[in-house]
Design a protein that fits this description.
Blueprint: H1 2-13, H2 45-56, E1 63-67, H3 74-86, H4 99-106, E2 112-115, H5 126-136, E3 146-150, H6 158-169, E4 175-181, H7 189-192, E5 196-199, H8 205-212, H9 216-219, H10 223-232, H11 237-245, H12 248-263, H13 270-280, H14 282-301, H15 317-324, H16 329-341, H17 352-366
Parallel strand pairs: 1-4, 1-5, 2-3, 3-4
Helix pairs in contact: 2-3, 5-6, 8-10, 10-11, 13-14, 13-17, 14-15, 14-16, 16-17
């Protein structure tokens, strides 16, 4: 059963490094594993050293909840932590050379399980949880620990969460669970309370920009463009890298032109715009809208200061200022709340275009002062 679980998880997960972390980090992670599981991102070094010290003293918790903003590398860190536990070279773990590391790298380690929504589903289902629990209840086949990663853990449906809770309450020997989530509040409090919680901070701006400058997809951009990407990603470097990989700057500018056109009544249909944005995915559309409305509110509050460092869309600051001037601040705040609330549909079967269409119809109302 563990091998069947692995093969299915590997098929579902193999596309991870090609998926936008912005839709993420759905937090889904590879089983086409990174080339080097012995390395973590530069901004994770302190946490990594603390984890190594805990492992060396056998003070390993049975469950760890890694939380933090999307796009900062939580899933990668969980994989490296798991590799450390499974490696047979205790002095240099993870060594990347021993049979355990090689099996893990190949996606065939019998004591490692990676669980995420299967197929087209947006949920981790109870049958998936039960199969992994059955495997974890067996004696370790290769080494000391049995390890499972759930990412994103907040995609557990109710039945799956209840099944997991029983395992957290009575964990089998030498079993370690890693739960990865950018939205830990969506997890039941009973699950959160039974995990060692590890909240990861978004890296410092200088560190994130320095890392982006070393990556192939963003190294060819000039410094100003890398800064724009990082601003758009709210400081999350992996999300910024995904934007660079997907031509995110150009797609966002085109989307903003439609957004501004709706406000100024240029004969653009909210329905057609929603249909186009829906193709990008609900998470992407909400990301755009949230950033623009955030900046509209900020510009209204600061009297149109387009040099404000907190602006997320600095390259669009002038255009946003022109949109912000006549708008009602309370109406913008209310609409921002509805955009934030729409995130609950990201992990649901609700049609993305329908959600975006409703929000754009709201924008037509909020922006009515432009058409009077």
């Amino acid at each position: 059963m563990p091998h069947r679980t692995w093969r299915r998880c590997r098929r579902h997960c193999a596309r991870y490094w090609r998926i936008s972390v912005m839709r993420e980090e759905t937090d889904t992670a590879p089983l086409d594993l990174p080339a080097d599981l012995t390395a973590v991102y530069p901004w994770q070094e302190d946490i990594w050293q603390q984890w190594q010290a805990r492992c060396n003293t056998d003070a390993v918790p049975h469950a760890v909840l890694l939380s933090g903003d999307a796009g900062i590398g939580k899933a990668h860190l969980a994989l490296s932590m798991a590799a450390h536990l499974l490696c047979s070279d205790r002095e240099h773990a993870p060594c990347g050379q021993c049979p355990e590391c090689r099996f893990l790298q190949a996606g065939t380690h019998a004591d490692f399980h990676y669980l995420q929504p299967g197929g087209d589903s947006k949920w981790i289902r109870i049958d998936q949880i039960r199969e992994v629990i059955d495997a974890l209840n067996l004696t370790a086949q290769r080494g000391r620990y049995k390890v499972a990663i759930l990412a994103p853990a907040d995609s557990l449906n109710t039945a799956a969460a209840n099944a997991l809770l029983k395992t957290l309450e009575e964990p089998s020997a030498d079993t370690v669970l890693f739960l990865v989530s950018a939205r830990p509040a969506r997890l039941p409090a009973t699950i959160r309370s039974r995990c060692q919680q590890l909240a990861l901070a978004t890296p410092q701006r200088a560190a994130a920009l320095a890392w982006l400058a070393t990556q192939a997809e963003s190294a060819t951009l000039d410094a100003r463009e890398r800064e724009q990407l990082l601003d758009l990603a709210a400081g999350a470097p992996l999300r910024a890298l995904a934007l660079a990989r997907e031509g995110g700057l150009a797609a966002r500018v085109a989307a903003f032109e439609a957004f501004a056109g709706l406000a100024r009544g240029k004969g653009i249909s909210p329905v057609s715009v929603a249909a186009e944005w829906g193709k990008e995915g609900l998470d992407t559309a909400l990301f755009w809208l949230y950033g623009w409305v955030h900046d509209l509110i900020l510009l209204r509050q600061l009297g149109g200061d387009i040099a404000a460092p907190a602006l997320r869309n600095r390259d669009l600051a002038g255009a946003l200022q022109g949109l912000a001037n006549p708008l009602d601040l309370k109406a913008l705040h209310d609409w921002l709340g509805r955009i934030r609330g729409a995130r609950r549909f990201v992990s649901s079967s609700v049609n993305a275009g329908t959600v975006v269409e409703d929000l754009l119809l709201d924008w037509v109302k909020v922006s009515a002062p432009h058409r009077r």
